[in-house]
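Below is the data:
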Amino acid sequence: MSDAPASTIPAAAAAAGAAAAEAAGAGAGAGADPALPARRRAGARLGAAGLRAAVYGIFLALALGTAAYAGLTLAWQSQQAADQEIAHRAAALTAAGERARRAEAAAEAGTPPRADTAGGLRPALTGLAASVRALEHALAERAADPLADLPGFGPGSAFDTSLGGAAARARDTAAALAAQLALRAPSLERHADAQPAGGAPDRDRAQAAALASAVDALQAALARAADRRADGARAALAALAALAALLLATLAAVVEPHAGAARRQAAQFDRQALELQRLALVGENTATVVILCDADYRVQWVNPAFTRCTGWSAAEALGTLPAELLRHPRALDSAHAALRHALAEGRAHHAELRCRRRDGSELWLEIDLRPLHDEAGALRGFVTVASDASAHVAERRKLRLLWATLPAGVTVVSQGGEIADANRAAESLLGAAQGSLVGAPLRAMGALLHDDGRPCEGEEHPALRTLRRAEALRNETIGVRLADGSLRWLLVNTEPQRDEQGRVVAALMCFTDISERRRLQQQLQASARADALTGLPNRAVVMERLARAIEHARAHSGYGFAVLFMDFDRFKQVNDTLGHAGGDELLRQIAQRLRRALRPGDEVARVDSGTDLAARLGGDEFVLVLDGVADAERVSAVAERLLREVSEPYTVLDHPVRTGASIGVVLVADGAAQVEDAQALLRDADTAMYEAKRAGRGRWVRFDPAMHERLVHTRSLEQELRRALRDGELVVAYQPVVDLASGSPSGVEALVRWRHPERGVLAAAEFLPTAEECGLVAELGRQVLAQACNQFADWRRRLGAQAPTTLAVNVARAELERPAFAEDLLQLLHQAGLAAPQLQLEITEASVARDETAQAMLRTLRARGVRLALDDFGSGHSSLASLHRLPVDLVKIDRSFVCNAETVEYQRVLIEATIRVARTLGITTVAEGIETEGQAALMRALACERGQGWLYGRPMTPEEYERWRAAGAA
């Protein structure tokens, strides 16, 4: 084993090392035979030379045959010329004989003058003798021809016998003729006039005919010789052609392929030699370490990269064992043992070894060992190619550390479906013992579940799907049932792992524990259907339940259900007085009471396993759905019980709180054909709830279709109110405020009235709620404030001492929340010519108790000199403890306390306590709603400073107030 997993060294580097061994082995003493390639090239060249010599021999034989044929042709042509010369001489001999015979015949005939005729015989005889000699000369030359020795042409041959015989007969016949004529010539010359001897001419003619016949025979022999020579030439030419064809066939079939192979082999060796030279240069100049060793693995040659990488020079390395130089003291023995075994067996080896440099520093080398063998297969040495893998090892160490410490679980799944590797986080997440997952099948992970809780079959495992489809998976959720029975939810990502050919060989699966997140998601999903504050179902659940109830009612005759829309009276005051924490606590207690109220019992019947539903829509609004209620009596019983339950006193933040509820009820019975949808049901129940509030609060009202008419009226009222604001139909009435000690008027309170063109004058209670709901209260307040200030200024100018000293105007919270309210108010006072202390703004405790913006505006106004009054103190949930936090100059005790103070001790004590606290804080007190002298006397006895009510005067128009003031002064 190696010290660390080895990566593959390129085969080209090993090849370059082997090439360097062959190319540079001789010069470096590497143990390799450097002359081996040269001998192979020389052998190849010798083989090629032998083949070329054979080729050249073939061509030489062909050339010699051709030359022989040419020689024969020339000889035959010479012989042909000689034969033609013989034929010519023979013909001349015949002619000479014929002339001699004619001359002899002429002389014999004695044609006068005979002497002249006989004298012509001598030259003819001379010519005949010359022709005989010429023929003999030609025959001699023919006999001296080189072909005379060739088979068929030499002495004794048929050719020689035929030609010689014919020539001899011709010669002998001509000689005999000449001799006969020569013998007769003198006789003829001496006896020119004598008669010729009888019989001699006949013999001469016979002799001449014999001569002609011999010459013809000679010419026939010459013709046959010519034919024979032609046949020989044709045979020689055919033999030469056959020889040439044979040689060419041999050249094409045997010699040329071997010659081509030899040439190609020589060229290949040349290319290999060039390649070896180049690879040797690579070995010299590459950054990869190359070490050449002999069969004992002692260094014979190293390239410069060895020195650069290890620090050891070539001279220091020669003759040593690489392990002596490079082995690290802490290297694994198993890695070097494997290397020794490979060396002993003479086989290739690949490993990654922990080594050391010359300076002792750590060096990781990735080595590729290759054995070198000679042609006989004997081991000649080794070539080792190595590269510096220190950076790779360091990177793998970091990756291994990351693998071990990664908080996410990671597993590698093989093609066979086994877990090839797994980190510690995977074992921990799957509840497996350390090391138990590696090599185990996927089922060792535990039983799997789909995101929806269905069992996950084996083939549906994310890793197996990735292996099968060669596709990555992202953000898949699976559940794993651990060995202890617990369920753990995992978020899984997979990625196919491919080899160099792009084939999928494994799947990498990474997963994290999302059990807690899933639990939170489930909680969020539940929260999306539940009110976070009370835990009751929210609007979405109500709408679903109503829709289901409507469908059930339409499908089942006799089935009914009821919707109760509940709103708590004066909850806003509680929330503003005790803060949001107090309001939230009150809502939680209300929710608990509603749950208790919806208990199983005779009052509420249930069908289809349904349950009554209590839900919070928001704020202090609750909806109850009573399932299976088909008659009004049961609805009435439930509504009354609910009112009793929620009206009992509460303790909120150690404060006693009383509140009630207004309930609107919609009963759906005998089918639901008349119901539009769930939204329409809630709308109708809400309408009935507002009717309950309008009727005095603390009660329930069943929805009646006529209520829609009142709703339409409210909307119409809003439109009319907008018109009234535009057309100036809103007017101000003034109610006097008196000093209780002296009974004299001290100021007035401006109260808005609507002078309706059709309905007459309307009090504020008839349209202010609508103005608040539709957002018109700020504009309404601006108009009232402007009219009141202008009227007050007019009184100050005209009435003098009888004019009121202060002007009180009610201000809504919506006005205080407007950033420009203070500047607009001061601008209005300036235009009217009023001083800021003459104006008194009245606010309710509920509107500013917990509103920091409104309180900031009040502090700004007070700082600019405007007086502030806390109106209706004691109504709702006023707290004396919070009075000091409000920037007010005056407290107006609510009429509900004043009217009962004479008979109810509790309320009298509260008024007294309020007056004492106010006096301690330097705040003026005003008692509202004084209608009798007894009430006025009680307020004076309790030291209340001012009073207001019908005892002193009702709200008046400016003219009425002027008359009232004048009458009081009189």
Summary: The radius of gyration is 73 Å. Residues 1-14, 23-36, 601-610 have pLDDT under 50 and may be disordered. Residues 254 and 847 are 123 Å apart (CA to CA). The longest strand covers residues 362-373.
